[in-house]
Amino acid sequence: MIGKTISHYKILEKLGEGGMGVVYKAEDMKLDRLVALKFLPSHLVDDEKALKRLLKEAKAASKINHPNVCTIHAIEEFEDTHFIVMEFVDGMTLKAKAKKEKLGIDEAVEYSIQIGKALKAAHDKDIIHRDIKSENIMINNENMVKVMDFGLAKLKDEAGLTKTGTAGTIAYMAPEQLQGFEIDTRTDIWSFGVVMYEMLTGQLPFKGEYESAMMYSIVNVEPEPMKDVPEELEKTVCKALVKNLDSRYQNIDELLQELKKMPSSVAISEKQEKSIVVLPFVNMSPDPKQEYFSDGLTEEIITDLSQIHTLRVISRTSAMMLKGTKKSINKISQELKVQYVLEGSVRKAGNNLRITAQLIDSINDKHLWAEKYSGTLDDVFDIQEKVSRKIVDALKLKLSPEENESLAERSIDNVAAYKYYLKANEEITKFSEDTINNALRNLQHAIDIIGENALLYSSMAFAYWNLVNIGIKQEDYLIKSEEYAKKSLLVDPESSTAHFVLGFIDFFREKQLESIHHFKKALEVNRDEIFALAGIAHVYEFAGKISAAVPYCERLMQIDPLSVPANWYKGGLYYYDGKFNLALQSWRKFYELHPENTLSLFMYAVILIYNNEIDEAITIIDQNAKTDPGNVVAKLGLILKYAIQGDEEKVFREMTPDFKKTCQRDLGFSHHISGIFAMLDVKDEALNWLENAVNFGFINYPFLNEYDPFLKNIRGEERFKKLMERVKYEWENFEV
Asked: Which has the least CB within 10 A, 48, 503, 547, 565?
C-alpha cells in the first residue's frame, strides 16, 4: 500500500493495525493536508458485518464535533473498498506515553479532564463508546487528547447493529458489560476509571494471567490501593470503578466536576503538611550596617526549621524577596500557600541584643505566641535555638532524635567568626566579582579565627563556583572551588553545600552521572537544598528525562515559589518536553515575577518566537539589550533577533571571539547559537555548535530531533542524522 494513490489520497506510511482496521498516514492531494485512512483488514473485506461496523464507527464519530475527539472528514468508497478519512493525529497513544515515562499527578488529571470532555460530547449525542482504553486515546504534540476508535460505539437508535455482550477489551470492561447485561453511559465511566488508574499507577486495576481470571477479578475483586496518589484523587477513581452501577458516578458531568475541583499535586501535599514562612527580621539597630545580622538570624532559623521533615519551610531566597514588603500576612500566606508566618525584629547595640518574634496562624488570624529575648552577642546561638523550639512546640511537631539533635547543632560556635560568616553570606549570591571577593575575604577571616570548619570551607567552594558561573577565571576558580568542597567533606562528609557545589562542577566538566550523585547526596542530607533541587532538575531536563525532573521541580516550587530557579525550571519542564504553549504560559508568569532578570527576558523571548509571537519577542529582546547591554544573555538575544530578521552580517559581527569563548563553555548557549545558524541556513556552523552542546551533555533527543523549530533546516543533513544516532543512544541509556 505504501506509495499507492487511492482516489486522491497518497499512502505515505502504515500507522497501526488492529482487529477491526488498518490505519495509514496519507496525503490528501486535493486539500493539501495530512490525513489518516482506516481500511478493513484484508480478511474482513468481504465481511458484511465488519463493513457495517466500519461505517457505524464513521457515523458515530461524525456526529461528535469536539476538539478532544478525532475528527471524521469523510467516508469514501474506491474500487469496492470502503475507508474512513480521519484527522491525522501527530503524537502517540496514551498507553505508549505512559509506558515511555511515568505521568505526573497533574498531567494525569489534565488528560483525564480532556478525556472526560470527549466522553461528555459523545454522551450528549446518545453515543456510548464501549471501548475506552489507553490505546484508543492519542496525545498529540500539543499535549491535547484525541479520543479515537468508535468502532464499538452504541447509538441509541441502532440497538440492532451490535450486541451489548462482550464487545470491547477485557481489561477495560465493566462488570455489567462482561456479564452481558444492559449497558449505558456509566459503562464508559468504568472504562474511563480503568484508564485513570492506569495513568496514575502505571498498571491495570484488575489482573489475571488468563481472560477468565481477569474477568473474575473485574466482577469480584477490589483494586489495590493507589500508592503515592492524593486521597481525593484516589476516591474519585475508585468511585468510577464501583461495581454496582447505581453507586458509580451516574453521569460524566459528575465525574468531570470532581476532576476540575481537584487541587494540584503541590496544593495537596501542602495541605497534608504544616507550613511556615520566616519573614526577614527587621533591623531595628541604630546602625543600618547591622542589616547582615538580622538577615543572618532569619536564615539560621530557616535552616533549623528546614531539618524538620513534617514542616514545609519557605526557603531563604523567597523569604528575602519579602523584605520590606507592605503585603498583609494573609496575602503573603495565600501567595506562598503557607499557614504559619513568623515575623520579628533585631536590635543590636554594641554587644547587646534584643530580639522579638511572634508566630501567626494566618488561616485563623491568630497569634500563637510572642516572645522577647534579651542578651549579648554571646547568647545569639541560644536565642536562635529557643525561637526554633518555640515554633516546634506551638505547632505540636514531634521531632525524631536526629531532628532534635540538629536543632542543637552549631556549625560555628565562635561569635567573631560567625559575624564574618554572616557578612560573607550576605554577598555570596549577589553575582558580581566585587561582592564575591568581599565574601571570600570575610570567610578567610572566619577561618583564621577558628581554623578548619565544614561550613566555612563549603561557603568558600560556593563563592568560587559563583565566580566560575559568571565567567571569571573559570579554569583557576574551578580548581579552587573543588579544593574547598573536598576540604569541607573531609571535615564533614554530610555537607550538603559541598555536595551540590561538586554537582555543579561535575556537570560543568560533562560528568552528568557524577553530578546527579552529588545532587542526590546533598538532598539526602537536606531535602530542601534549593541549589541541589535546581541542579538535578537542570541535568535531567537537558538529558531529556522530563519525568525524572518533575518531583524536583515540584518540591522547588513548594519551598521557593518566588525565586528565579523555581519558576525557570517549572517552565523548563514544558519547554524541554516540546509543550511550547504550556511553556509560554509558565514563562509569562516567570517574566511578570522577574521582569528585570536577564535570563527570564531571553527565554520569554525564545518561547514567544516558538509560539509565533515575533513582534512581542523582539520588543522583549530590545528591552533586555537596553537594560543590561554587557550581559552575554542579552547579547545572545540580539543575535537571535538579527537571525529572525535574516540579517546574517549583523549576526557574524556580534559573534566576537570573547562571546564565542563564553558560549562554547555552556551547553544551553551552544544550542541556541546552533539554532540561530540553522535559521540562517549556515549549516556547518549550526552543526558545529550543536555538536558542542551535545558534548557538554545536551542529549535531549526528542527536543533536538523533533521539537526545536529552529533546527528544522539541518535535520535533513547526514551529519545531523549521525549526531542524532549518538544522542539517541546516550538519551536512551542515561541512568535516572
From this structure: 48
Find out whether 488 and 498 touch, Cβ atoms under 8 Å.
yes
Cα 53 to Cα 41: distance, rounded to the nearest angstrom = 13
564-575 and 598-610 helices, crossing angle to 10°? 20
> What pLDDT is recorded for position 154?
55
Going by the DSSP 8-state scheme, the letter that residue 69 receives in this structure is B
**What single letter denotes the amino acid at residue 373?**
Y
Better-scored residue on pLDDT, 467 or 472: 467
Q: What pLDDT score was predicted for residue 161?
A: 29
Find the farthest-apart pair of alpha carbons in the chain and give their distance in angstroms, rounded: 99
**How high is the pLDDT of residue 166?**
44
Task: Report the alpha-carbon distance of residue 275 to residue 594 in Å, rounded.
Answer: 25
Q: Tell which residue, 330, 496, 290, has the closest CA to residue 411.
A: 496
685 near 677, Cβ under 8 Å?
yes
Query: With contact defined as beta carbons under 8 Å apart, do 691 and 723 qualify?
Result: yes
Residue with cell 457505524: 56
The pairing of strands 21-28 and 127-128 is unpaired
Name the amino acid, one letter, at 41.
P
Domains of the chain, each with CATH number or no CATH: 5-87 (3.30.200.20), 91-262 (1.10.510.10), 270-410 (3.40.50.10610), 411-526 (1.25.40.10)
Neighbour-count burial for 367-398, b at 16+ CB within 10 Å, e otherwise = ebeeeebeeebebbbebbbebbbbbbeebebe
Of 423-432, 462-471, 661-670, the one with minimum mean pLDDT is: 423-432
pLDDT in tens, 510-538: 888 899 999 999 999 888 899 999 999 98
Residue type, 709: P
207: its cell numbers: 489482573
| Number of neighbours of residue 607 by Cβ within 10 angstroms | 25
Reading the block at residue 8, the C-alpha cell is: 486522491
